[in-house]
Amino acid sequence: MIRLSLIIATYNRSAALIEALRSVVRQDLPADQWECIVVNNNSQDDTLARFEAFAAKHPQVNLRIVTETKQGLSYARNRGIEESRGEYIAIIDDDERINEQFISSYVDLFDRYPDAASAGGAIIAEYPAGRPKWISRYTERPIANPIDLGSQIRLFPAGRIPGGGNMALRKSIIEQYGAFDPNLGRTGENLIGGEESDLFERLNAAGTRCYYVPSAIMWHIIPPRKTTKEYFSNLCRQIGRTQRLRAAKRNRYPQLLLGEAVKWGATLLLSLGFLLRLTPAKARYLLLMRYQITCGMIKTKRG
Fold it and tell me: Where does the record place the Glycosyltransferase 2-like domain (predicted)?
């Protein structure tokens, strides 16, 4: 009996996908109790060939791949959910690796906590080329979204949601409240997001409970190209654009801009603190983050 379906959407990152799968096949839960569905979202590289070669070496594991022709992370994840056979769904990305207890931790959580509609685990940022000196706890969040809420199972605090690359849900909850909004989520190299926030906002409005599972650990691999100034600037601008689209959908655009003004005040104070501690690079990138997010919130020809 398949208890949990693990879904991985992938696009043109065959090497990263195989590394993620190496951690997947090491799970401690018996292989007949879970499956892994890779959703190939129109990859133009050798994703299919490399997956088939990898799966052939691990026949004991329920590994399969499907193709989603509609471009976009939300489309791909939704396709994985449609293909799933498990009563629980877990989602990771193709640039991650997970610990051996990842799947069993979520199965145990949902079995032990019948009120749990969704869950999320710990996220640890990993920089193969070294952590850049300009990264602070504030600027790291859009890049890697590290999460550590302690060593005990607990409810996610108000205002916090699981990271998109380490979350789990009961399939019945998705069937009841809907999956990911295809109008949101990354498409190819477009970094617009917000699909996870939109989903968890719906679940929160319905009064469902979301638990933090410390033993479900994911390492988010951050390659050097994702720590360049150009990538960081574009990412932050798209975050602002995402927030604008979601606020417009809820008729809360004025409130969004008011909140951003408050965040500018906090950003200036934090930047001053970095300067006083002689870490000017952290101050510069914090200001850059806020500036690009604000630009994304304001509709321009680029956005």
Answer: 5-177
Listing DSSP states for 190-240 in one string gives B----HHHHHHHHHHHTT-EEEEEEEEEEEEE--GGGGSHHHHHHHHHHHH
Q: What is the DSSP letter of 162?
A: -
DSSP assignment of 58-116 equals -TTS-EEEEE--S-SHHHHHHHHHHH--SSEEEEEETTEEE-TTHHHHHHHHHHH-TTE
The DSSP code sequence of 2-50 is --EEEEEEESS-HHHHHHHHHHHTT-SS-GGGEEEEEEE-S--SSHHHH
Given pLDDT bands bounded at 50, 70 and 90, which one contains residue 303? Answer: very low
- Averaged pLDDT, 227-241: 94
Question: For 4-224, which CATH superfamily applies?
Answer: Spore Coat Polysaccharide Biosynthesis Protein SpsA; Chain A (3.90.550.10)
Tokens (6 digits) for 250: 């809820």
Render pLDDT for 95-138 as a digit per residue (tens, 0 to 9): 999 999 999 999 999 999 999 999 999 999 999 999 999 999 99
* Token representation of residue 64: 């399969």
In the chain, where the domains are located:
4-224, 229-297
Convert the pLDDT of each residue in 40-52 to its tens digit: 999 999 999 999 9
Question: pLDDT tens, 79-90?
Answer: 999 999 999 999
The DSSP annotation for 230-242 comes to HHHHHHHHHHHHH
The pLDDT of residue 221 is above 70 = yes
Q: Which two tokens stand for residue 240?
A: 């602002």
Is-contact 183 144, C-beta < 8 A? no
Three-state SS letters, 125-155: EECCCCCCCCCCCCCHHHHHCCECCCCCCEE
